[in-house]
Every structure is written in structure tokens, then in C-alpha cells.
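Late entry, evening session. Most of the bench is empty. Finally got around to the prediction I had been postponing all week. Sequence below, unchanged from the version circulated by S.P.
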Amino acid sequence: MSTQTITKGAGAAQTAPASRGENAPQPRRGTRFSRGERLRKDGWWALLFVGPLLFGVLVFYIWPIFRNAYFSFTTWGAFGGATWSGLSNYQQMLADPEFWRAILNTLIYVGILLLGIPLAVLFAALINRPGLKFAAAYRTAFFLPYVAMPAAISMVWRIIFNGDFGVINYTLSLVGIHGPNWLSTEWFALFAVGVVGVWISLGFNLIVLSAGMRSIPPEMYEASSIDGATRTRQFFSITVPLLSPSIFFVSVITVITGFQLFDLLYALMGTGNPAINQTQSLVYLFFAHQQTGDNGYAAAVGVAILVLVGAFTMLQFRMQKRWVNYV
């Protein structure tokens, strides 16, 4: 047998499996969708379920924001009708002492609400102690003011803060102190509203912080107890650092809620209160100008509220890296 014949036979042997592989039938894929088709199909289902909610957000939240921003550049007549006036409303607002006083009052109220967060942390730590009886009843009692109607709450607290026969002034008179008229004196009224706001928000903060505490591994407390750490040391070295994400969430919600102060202030003080002009919040200023028909100025105040809430929220998110511990 010649060398040429052997070479041809070897070449045929090498090329035969390749040719059989090329001509072999491919396995059937069945009726499964490709990745792109499956994503498109799931996307339509997601849009079907999210669509009504998205439509509601666009109609009742996003569109009013843009509409209000447009009206802030207009002037309204006594019988309605808006005419373009440019930046006149903003110039009037920045030169208005009531506007700056409303910002100061709102910031003070927000600060009082933020002071209630450490109080909520303390109560949450007490309620979540192991072996505490009636813990669920305590949480319910703290949470009830949060779900109660502001008008009903205000009626009770107006009696408590009454300057003539209120519980607070009566208690102060027992030790020889003559209490002020809490809801009709300038700075005392704002402090009284802040105290009620803390009392209302305590229940929500307590629920969120309690959930955060239950997520802390109990092994950390056991290990620290073996090392001789007291409950106070465990609270400041374990509970507070690991609870910082929940505290951050509560602080953001508290700031946003504080800038929305209106119903509690309106129900507690009313429109005929002599201290209302010195105690009014930004939202109350917005309401007051709408009542007088100055809708363009009111819209400018609304834009200012949106900008301030966005600025403070952004500041909180920027500062969270310094004190929030994410495990």
C-alpha cells in the first residue's frame, strides 16, 4: 500500500465525524420563549398591575406639582382667572416677614419632633425587653394617638393646655407657679403644638424602632454579657449603632411630616387665636393666602415647601454615611 493511499484514508477518517456532526439533527427546543420574549411578556403583566397605581400618582401627585409651579408665576383676580406675572410672587414672598417667620416656626416644630426620636428609642428598648408582660398592649397604647383623628386629639389637648382650668396649669399651681395661656401666647403656643406632635408621632416611631430592634442578633447581647457589659453599655454600644438604619428612616419621615404641619395647628389654635400669625407654619401660610384668593402667592409658598423638603431630605441622605451603620 502506497503512502498516498494511507494519507487519503487518514483524511477520510478525520473528516467523517465532522460531516456526521454537521448533518446530525438538532434537538428540538419545544415551545419555550426566548429571554427577550419572556421579559417583554412579564413587562406587560407588570404594567397591567402597576398601571392603575402609576396613573393615580401621575394624576393626583405629579401633575398637581407642575400645575402649582405654573400658577406660582401668575396673578389671580378677585373672580378667578390667572394672568402671567413672572417672578413677582417670589419677589413678594422673599420680602414678606410672615414667610420667614413661617419658615422659622416650621423648623422649630421639626426640631421638636426630632427631639422625640431619642424618646422613642428609649421606650422601644424598654418595651422590647425579654420577658416583659403585656408588651403588645403597650405598643397598641402608644400607637393609638397616631391613628386617632387630629380634631379629637386637639379637643383633649385644648382642655389640658387651657390657661384657666387646664391640667398643666393646675399642676403648676400646686407648687406655686402661675402657668401661661399655652395656646394664646406666642412662643408657648408653638411649644405646645410641638409637644402634641411628639405625642402623636411617638407610636409610629416606636413600631418602626421595635421592628429594627427585633432584627438585632441576640447572640451579640449574650456575648457582651459574658464580657461583663451592663444593660446601659449594651444599649449604647450595640442597640443604638445597629438601630441607626431605623433611626435614619424615622428621622426622614419626621422631617417630611414636620414640614406638613397644618391640621394639628389649625385644630389646636383656630383662626381667631391672637397668636396664630406668629405661630403659623408654611402650610398654614399657604392655606391663609388661598382663603384670601391670592392663589399665585399661595402657589409660590407651595413651591418653597417642596424645595425645602427636598433640600432637607437630600441633606439627611448625604449625612447618613457619617453615622448610619449598615450591617
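Two things to note before I forget:
Residues 152 and 267 are 9 Å apart (CA to CA).
Residues 35-71 form the longest helix (37 residues).
Will write this up properly tomorrow.
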